[in-house]
Amino acid sequence: MANFCEQLETAQPMSTDNHAALMLSLESTGRMPNPNQRRETVSFGQVDSVMLRDDWEKGITEATPAPFSEYHSTKFPETKLCFFYRGHRMSESGSNSFTQTLSQADHALSKSEIQSLQEVLGTKADKESYTMLDARTQSLNGKRVLIVRGAYLENHYENETVYVDSDGSGSAVQEIYWQSPRSDYAAQRQVRAALRSISWK
To answer: Nearest to residue 53, comparing CAs of 70, 36, 69, 65?
Structure first.
């Protein structure tokens, strides 16, 4: 955050896209209030709430067998923020791999780690349908999570998924993700900021 303030104080030029993204980031943390933004109570798994623009609304919600809840922009309805639980626990080996990965300091995943996390990653591990651009563990507002960013090959949707250990066992994985058409840049900035504004229970 200090870096952004420093950039504002210097004469160095900043691109329109970068400036907008950083402004949204400040808004999402509450450091720069936005009258067109609200904190939405989600209460889904480990998530308590997120910051959303007023033109975002709740969409499809499913309770069983795999709980799912979705929010989308009314201006860009194909850009969505989703909360998902698979409805079943992973195998012991998959759970152990996930726990071990999250127990380490924040880091970019090695190829061997990605290979060991195939059960966690699900379809994201399939190179025939998904191009993985980045995979790393990261502390997101006080909780260490696994974050994967990439794109689906079939529809070219951009995607970012956060994998959360729901109960400390490593077996109950909650997914929080956004997906968006590659051309919806404005909506992508909004949903990325929303993802990073998560308040945990």
So the answer is: 36
Average pLDDT per block of 10 residues along the chain, 201 residues long: 35 45 50 77 96 96 92 96 96 98 97 97 95 97 98 95 97 97 93 96 95
ω before 65 within 30° of 0 (cis)? yes
Cα–Cα dist 165/167, whole Å: 6
Residue 69 burial (CB < 10 Å; 0-12/13-18/19+)?
buried
Q: What is the pLDDT of residue 19?
A: 52
CA dihedral over 98, 111, 133, 158, signed as positive or negative: negative
Phi, psi at residue 148, to the nearest 5°? -125, 130
User: Is residue 5 packed enough to be buried (19+ CB in 10 Å), middle (13-18) or exposed (0-12)?
Assistant: exposed
Which residues fall within 8 angstroms of residue 156, CB to CB, at 6 or more apart? 181, 182
Query: For position 26, what pLDDT does the model report?
Result: 52
Partners of residue 72 on adjacent β-strands: 57, 80
